[in-house]
Design brief:
Blueprint: H1 2-14, H2 16-28, H3 30-42, H4 49-61, H5 75-94, H6 97-116, H7 118-129, H8 139-163, E1 169-171, E2 174-177, E3 180-183, H9 191-208, H10 213-243, H11 246-255, H12 257-287
Antiparallel strand pairs: 1-2, 2-3
Helix pairs in contact: 2-6, 4-7, 5-6, 6-7, 8-10, 9-10, 9-12, 10-11, 10-12
């Protein structure tokens, strides 16, 4: 325990300048961070933001022994800092939250890139990219994609219900069952939970899948996985209302719907990850 404490203390003393600089950036942009935290508190779909910074810090810390110092500073980092500074200025002036938050991450990334150097940064880049998952979806994307996702989820759910013999009809995003009307509202479109699931897929792929291609495949596959699990949530709610009672759908199933999505998504990710690792192992063994 003393050795661990001493090693940590020595590390912080050696690199205190970079930690102080990143802390200064955070203090100077406290208003941006405060508004971001307010979004995490106000909207349950973004509450995972509280975990993003600690996880990103841990991802960086676990790679600390691979970093080599002294390292040649990267001038590219200064360009990234400049781009982040300009983005914050224009974002604040236009009251564009996504731009200011993205630019803040860009500034922190640029400072770290300059200090660590390009070779070191290649080893820890994922911890900085992961910070982007704490930023809510831009409003223009959210509002333009919500309705199509609502309609798609409604259509697919109706097809599934008809397949299992449930009498059902649909009008837009409204699903009509006997004695029950199920509305696929904005919150049920699946778009908001997509950010959380993307973060889950990114960290799972980075930690447990070998190589560079497999983590990217899993990350991209998170999108259809999110869509499938959201449809499954609506389908389960409809079945519960039809086969058991509408009170069950309105109360219990509605309360645990988020859990249904994430457990289902995690299971699908684990299955897909295992399949990809198995296929990779077979290809390596056959080539050798």
């Amino acid at each position: 325990m003393n050795l661990t404490y001493q090693a940590t203390s020595d590390h912080i003393k050696t690199h205190r300048q970079i930690y102080l600089l990143v802390g200064l950036i955070a203090v100077l942009n406290l208003g941006i961070l405060w508004d971001l935290v307010a979004d995490w508190i106000r909207d349950d779909n973004y509450s995972h933001g509280f975990l993003v910074i600690p996880i990103a810090a841990w991802l960086f810390w676990r790679k600390r022994d691979t970093l080599v110092f002294p390292a040649e500073s990267s001038k590219l980092g200064l360009l990234v800092v400049l781009a982040g500074s300009v983005g914050i200025i224009f974002g604040v002036a236009a009251s564009e939250y996504f731009t200011t938050r993205f630019s803040l991450v860009l500034m922190v990334t640029g400072v770290s890139l300059y200090y660590l150097g390009l070779e070191n940064f290649r080893k820890v880049w994922f911890s900085f990219v992961f910070l982007l998952f704490m930023i809510p979806i831009p409003a223009i994307i959210y509002f333009s994609a919500t309705l199509p996702m609502q309609l798609m989820a409604s259509k697919v759910t109706v097809v599934l219900l008809e397949t299992v013999g449930v009498p059902v009809s649909r009008s837009g995003n409204i699903i009509y069952l006997p004695d029950f009307v199920l509305e696929v509202a904005e919150a049920c479109s699946g778009l908001r939970s997509l950010v959380t699931l993307l973060a889950l897929g990114a960290i799972y792929g980075n930690l447990y899948l070998p190589g560079r291609v497999l983590p990217i495949i899993l990350f991209v596959a998170t999108v259809p996985i999110a869509i499938v699990t959201n449809v499954f949530r609506i389908f389960v709610t409809a079945i519960g209302a039809y086969a058991i009672s509408k009170e069950l759908a309105e109360d219990f199933l509605h309360e645990i719907s988020g859990m249904i999505v994430f457990v289902s998504a995690l299971i699908l990710m684990l299955i897909l990850g295992s399949i990809m690792k198995w296929i990779r192992k077979l290809s390596l063994s056959s080539s050798s």
